[in-house]
Specification:
- There is one protein chain.
- This protein is α/β, with parallel strands linked by helices and about 350 residues long.
- The chain has helices spanning about 15-25, 75-85, 110, 130-145, 165-180, 210-220, 255-265, 285, 315-335; strands at about 5-10, 30-35, 45, 50-55, 55, 65-70, 90-95, 125, 150-155, 230-235, 240-250, 270, 290-300, 305-315.
- The longest helix is centred in the middle third of the chain and has 17 residues, at about 130-145.
- The model has no long low-confidence stretch (mean pLDDT about 95).
- It binds NADP nicotinamide-adenine-dinucleotide phosphate.
- NADP nicotinamide-adenine-dinucleotide phosphate (NAP) binds near residues 40 and 164.
Amino acid sequence: MSFKVAIVGATGNVGREMLTILEERGFPTHEIVPLASRRSLGQTVSYGDKTLKVKALDTYDFSDTDLCLMSAGGSISKEYAPKIGATGCVVIDNSSTWRYDTNVPLIVPEVNAQAIGGFSKRNIIANPNCSTIQLVLALKPLHDAAIIKRVVVSTYQSVSGAGKEGMDELFEQSRAVFVADPITSKKFTKRIAFNVIPHIDVFMEDGYTKEEWKMTVETKKILDPKIKLTATAVRVPVFIGHAEAVHVEFEKPLSAHEAQTILRDAPGCQLIDKHEDGGYITPYECTGEDDTFISRIREDITVENGLAFWVVADNLRKGAALNAIQIAELLISRNLIKPKSAA
Ligand code: NAP
């Protein structure tokens, strides 16, 4: 059994990573169609040792395509995902547009695979926010052990989370600093080179940013609506890899040692937690890795039944492309998707 797969946003950061991961994992496909805007017509992308020509999304006919991996931004997902889903092609969407729709499952396969069944009303499955994915991977086994009441999380998010333009801006500004050229900001609201910015996505009425709101709402949808979560989302001058400082308050006691034992065996997680110089993982080291890394586990001395820890993952892989492809693999393993043709 093999599938015809379209990648919308194939020229972008996430789309390119999807092509790499599909090939790496030997995803069962007989045809891959890279799609982007008309601006990219004539461009090519790599899939293993093959070179594929990019086609325009707005003229592509999805009627014989089985699976669409979408990462071209919220407005494109809003317009196209329902139309593509209506052709019988299953859409796995990376934008935030469909995540909060009750008819759209929001899935991290290691955490809530059981929720995938409800996708057929719209034929859309949502990939959570990159910061949510790595957080819930660490929270889930701890929640199962001691029931989470409240989470306080501060993020340190790399510029690749803002697309290829975000990476270009950090590179250009860093170069400009060294050669004393004027510094211009387009993608970010302030200079990002040698700086940090406590602002990702738009401001909400209550003073939180939408990125922070997403982490709260998505954690509730994926894990447990009873969990209270407050986030501060910060952009940092790192190209790839998001880090998070997490403080969790539990209903039941859970020692740091018990949490280490649990997280050592948690699916999709790796524990690197030595209380010595370098005995923890940083974003630079997790680039290109599939796992979410957990370090610095300690008991929070300010609260009863509290733990603090550090979580790091490659935001383009587990935070976006890899998670989407794992969702597709889950559909196949549960027989929830069938090829339209007999190929
Ligand atoms: P990016 O590097 O800026 O790439 C954007 C892609 O969208 C490009 O391929 C671009 O094609 C395409 N695109 C833009 N306008 C289009 C149009 N009118 N029609 C068709 N394609 C169009 O961005 P990215 O980092 O890959 O992120 C893409 C999406 O994934 C965003 O929604 C982002 O929020 C989401 N994302 C999600 C996560 C997650 O954790 N779930 C993580 C990172 C990103 P051209 O090259 O032709 O312009």
